[in-house]
Amino acid sequence: MMATASPWAWEPRPDVWLLVASLVGGYWWSLTRLRLVLPDAPPMPSAAVRARFMSGVAVLWLAVDWPLDRIGDEFLFSAHMTQFVVIALIAAPLLVAGVPVWLQRELVRPVSPTVRFLARAPIALLIFQLVLVATHLPVVVSQYSSNEFVHFVLHLVWVLSALLFWLPILGSEPVVTPLGSGGKFLYLIAATIAPTVPASFLTWAETPLYDSYAEAPRIWGLSAVDDLQLAGAIMKVGGGTILWGFILWVFVSWAASERVRPDHRSQRGGDGPA
What is the pLDDT of residues 37-50, one digit of tens each? Predict the structure, then answer.
């Protein structure tokens, strides 16, 4: 890991800029051109849906471009952990929620059976949890810090596993079989459990675990151990807060739908002859 003294030294990231431009350009082309040639041309998605996708792209851009990516690569493991949380728990759900069903169907058409299988709730959850643990093993982090190809692949794996993770919650038929409200609630509760193990391990660490970050220039008064403990707190508190926010949203939506059903039944009963 090579680093200059300042974590704020600017680095151009043309690969990131190309990715962002491709996502935005491909999305807009799909809405304005592809949509019109599909059978029974679907309606333009609402402004809210489009805003979710663009917000997801913007958040992804912030996570993988300067300065966060530079600080996460060369200085602080806690910044690296922040990247994971932002990509997996903020950018990914926004991207899924911002792609209309007809576009989801077109995107996965060549591999539809594979996506449908991998996006089954238990499998998607297992993949996401395995990626979370495996990509933060010391041997993997060491390669991430020193090898540009591994760096790119890890970011790609984060994004793909996170998209799979959110499909059972935010996806729709025929792309995936979405969970019902109760299933979403249990799925998200289960998702909060596995991260607490590595997060707790990092939070209570007393010695550096990652040589590349232990040897990095110290910034902002954080020792290597402080940096690890901060990373654990980001995963546990930051990631947990986001997941519990989604759990609350699912619960409130579920309760609201259950409250509406009796009203509909009573109205139907009241419409009959006296």
Answer: 998 899 999 999 99
